[in-house]
């Protein structure tokens, strides 16, 4: 008897299954984890098929060395093939991604006793009952995919507790995913206090502890599972519900092969198990909005227009050359500081000086082929999506004005302007270039300037210890002026989260811009869903997800000419081979040289909701394949 086995190893994408003989007296079935020898080394393998004859006749087969006494659930077995097909990797790498490290002596370590921290939710009883009723109503509908939009982190916690309680009453299994390790700190204690048998799957656990939690899931002893990206592979016998917290977070997308998106994997597992999927988000991604719209409208836990932001037109207010902070901001800041309140200023550092903008009418120059902003590069405009180039214009094509500038303002520039205006105030800058801040320095600061680092690490401390009087975005263009098709969506999501900070702190919220009429700003500031309507139409027109599937192909060489020639040759080949896909490029990213290597890329657009073309699997191993990239 022979078994077809997948070893859990990092093998090339073109390799598939391997045949092993089954020794007499050894009982194995599809789904069993076994030990095999592969090129002289011991490896864990997954049995996927049993047969009387090997796939290659006349070849001597190595025997299976033993079994682990563990069988994977059927949907995880099928998920291995699904990952190999949809990420264009070998089944071996797919299996290695799914399995945790198996301890050499499992079961000998002391019993894992998770620390139970104090859990609190800052919300009135009446408000909690209101949120709970909305959530229970949605869960009862059992939509295949739905969206819960929250405003306050406390609303999210109440929503998760309510969803978990609803599944527990029905004795059903629920999987909850969060994007970052830090997110577990606020959620795990709340859930564990109510559900002591909660299983948590995350990085940082000892291999023995992770293995024990993993086996609890496999044995059906953990009806509620919480974890980060890798928890999507929890070996649950049956999944009845999946919750994706903060669906818009880019951390769900892995950077290393097989570069999986946990949200896409969660959707596949929900589909295979006929489970319901709920995205709990402040502003979900467009792909989720499109899927959920098939089954009903999003449920808003708070009115979207309960608090609005003021949009300040910088074309009318900033006259002094080189300045970015308006008179409106100056007055609001003085009032907040005089009342003893703190000021929070958010700025996206990555947007500094990347796109070309007319300072007279506010128009950002877009590539006509891709509808994303040109990047200013030396004396030319470059589209880092399709590779198209254009000369720098002398005037604006919309209004004829000649005040064309590379838009953007980083946190350091804003800090310098604030120091000049408020020399006697304590100003703290928090970004990747600033030194690590202590909680005390955050609490004592009058003005805090930060990027997403502030929102993720220090915001809770600031909100808990200080009264917030003003929340501001000095230059909104730095958000949606990036050269990427997701730039507008990510700008909208960040603006919504910033406005929500102002709302829950009853603070004045100001957004400065040269383009006050932009849909992103108007939709976020007034609490309407017009953004999604226009974003869907734009993506449909230009063929972006969810109306296509993107596959990013990259090659890196020491010589730029070698990288470019390889990309050009590959583009020619695939344009003739791929009948139902579009090949865009080649083009270089920005920057194109990193760590001494030059990179050139191709972008393949294929049909949505279908596996990527198998022809791409023939690419040499030095090529990187990223299916469903977060950015291009």
Using brief descriptors, characterize the structure shown.
632 residues; alpha/beta; seven-stranded parallel beta sheet; 18 helices; 33% helix
Low-confidence stretches: none
Oligomer type: single chain
Report strand %.
15-25%
Please bin the fraction of helical residues: 25-40%
Spatial extent as radius of gyration: 27 Å
Q: How many helices does DSSP assign?
A: 18
Main beta sheet: strand number and arrangement? Answer: 7 strands, parallel
| Number of beta strands | 28
In which order are the strands of the major sheet placed? 8-9-7-10-11-6-12
Average predicted local confidence, pLDDT: 88
Our measurement of the CA-to-CA distance between the termini, rounded to an integer number of angstroms, reads 48 Å
What is the 3D shape? globular
Helix/strand-derived category reads alpha/beta
Can you walk through the features of this model?
- The chain is α/β, with parallel strands linked by helices and 632 residues long.
- Helices cover 33% and strands 22% of the residues.
- The chain contains 18 helices and 28 strands.
- The strands form six sheets. Strands 8-9-7-10-11-6-12 form a seven-stranded parallel sheet, with helices on both faces.
- A hairpin with a 2-residue loop joins strand 16 (375-377) and strand 17 (380-382).
- Helix 4 (153-169) packs across helix 5 (181-194).
- The chain is globular, with a radius of gyration of 27 Å.
- The mean pLDDT is 88.
């Amino acid at each position: 008897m022979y078994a077809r086995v997948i070893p859990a190893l990092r093998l090339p994408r073109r390799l598939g299954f391997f045949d092993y003989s089954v020794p007499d007296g050894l009982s194995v079935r599809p789904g069993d984890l076994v030990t095999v020898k592969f090129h002289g080394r011991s490896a864990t393998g997954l049995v996927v098929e049993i047969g009387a004859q090997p796939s290659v006749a006349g070849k001597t087969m190595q025997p299976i060395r033993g079994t682990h006494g563990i069988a994977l659930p059927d949907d995880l077995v099928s998920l291995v093939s699904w990952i190999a097909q949809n990420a264009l990797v070998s089944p071996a790498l797919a299996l290695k991604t799914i399995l945790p490290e198996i301890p050499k002596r499992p079961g000998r370590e002391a019993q894992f006793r998770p620390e139970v921290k104090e859990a609190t939710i800052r919300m009135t009883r009446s408000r909690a009952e209101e949120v709970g009723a909305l959530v229970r109503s949605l869960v009862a509908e059992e939509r295949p995919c739905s969206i819960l939009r929250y405003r306050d982190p406390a609303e999210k916690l109440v929503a998760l507790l309510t969803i978990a309680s609803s599944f527990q009453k029905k004795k059903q299994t629920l999987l909850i995913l969060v994007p970052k390790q830090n997110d577990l700190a606020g959620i795990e204690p709340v859930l564990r206090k109510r559900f002591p048998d909660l299983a948590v799957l995350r990085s940082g656990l000892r291999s023995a502890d992770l293995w024990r939690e993993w086996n609890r899931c496999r044995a059906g002893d953990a009806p509620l599972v919480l974890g980060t990206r890798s928890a999507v592979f929890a070996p649950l016998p049956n999944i009845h519900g999946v919750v994706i917290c903060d669906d818009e977070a880019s951390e769900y997308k892995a950077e290393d092969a097989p570069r999986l998106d946990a949200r896409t994997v969660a959707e596949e597992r929900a589909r295979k198990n006929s489970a319901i999927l709920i995205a709990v988000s402040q502003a979900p991604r467009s792909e989720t909005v499109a899927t959920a719209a098939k089954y009903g409208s999003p449920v808003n836990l708070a009115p979207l227009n309960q608090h609005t932001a003021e949009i300040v037109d910088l074309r009318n207010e900033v006259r002094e050359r080189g300045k970015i902070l308006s008179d409106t901001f100056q007055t609001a800041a003085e009032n907040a500081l005089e009342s003893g309140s703190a000021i929070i200023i958010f700025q996206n550092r990555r947007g500094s000086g990347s796109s070309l903008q007319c300072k007279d009418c506010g128009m950002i120059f877009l590539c006509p082929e891709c509808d994303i902003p040109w990047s200013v590069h030396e004396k030319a405009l470059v589209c880092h999506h399709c590779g198209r180039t254009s000369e720098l214009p002398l005037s604006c094509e919309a209004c004829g004005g000649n005040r064309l500038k590379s838009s953007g303002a980083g946190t350091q520039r804003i800090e310098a302007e604030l120091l000049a205006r408020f020399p006697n105030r304590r100003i703290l800058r928090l970004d990747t270039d600033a030194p690590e801040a202590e909680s005390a320095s955050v609490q004592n600061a009058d003005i805090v300037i930060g990027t997403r680092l502030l929102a993720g690490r220090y915001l809770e401390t600031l909100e808990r210890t200080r009264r917030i009087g003003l929340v501001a975005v000095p230059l909104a263009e730095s958000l949606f002026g990036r050269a990427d098709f997701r730039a507008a969506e990510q700008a909208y999501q960040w603006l919504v989260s910033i406005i929500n900070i102002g709302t829950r702190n009853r603070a004045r919220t100001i957004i400065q811009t040269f383009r006050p009429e932009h849909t992103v700003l108007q939709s976020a500031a007034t609490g309407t869903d017009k953004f999604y309507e226009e974003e869907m139409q734009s993506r449909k027109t230009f063929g972006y997800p969810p109306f296509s599937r993107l596959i990013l192909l990259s090659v890196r060489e020491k010589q730029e000419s070698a990288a470019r020639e390889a990309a050009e040759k590959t583009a020619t080949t695939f344009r003739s081979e791929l009948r139902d896909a579009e090949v865009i490029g080649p083009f270089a990213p920005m920057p194109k040289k990193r760590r001494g290597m030059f990179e050139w890329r191709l972008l393949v657009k294929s049909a949505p909701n279908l596996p990527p073309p198998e022809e791409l699997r023939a690419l040499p191993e030095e090529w990187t394949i990223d299916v469903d990239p977060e950015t291009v």
